[in-house]
Amino acid sequence: KIIVGMLQKNPMVIMTKKTSGLTTPKDLNGKTGGFTPGSSPEQILPALAGKTGMDLNSIKKVSADIPTRDNIFLAGQTDFSFGYTVTQVPLL
Question: Measuring CA to CA, which residue among 10, 15, 9, 55 is closest to residue 35?
Fold first, then answer.
């Protein structure tokens, strides 16, 4: 037997804090983000940038494993982070 959850929308997200004022992808230009090398949301970031006017060269990238990336985001050491609506969002 298998129990499966089906998602109708992609669960990948870029997380910001409500108080940050960052509401569009272009708002991330010049900001600092927590990145995990090889993470799938970050692999599709260039496609998002191409569609939204993000300047990936202006973004400071802090590389860390996923738990550290989440913790430095919560501590305010990065302006945004990546995650999934089904994992990081409920936990954070």
Answer: 15
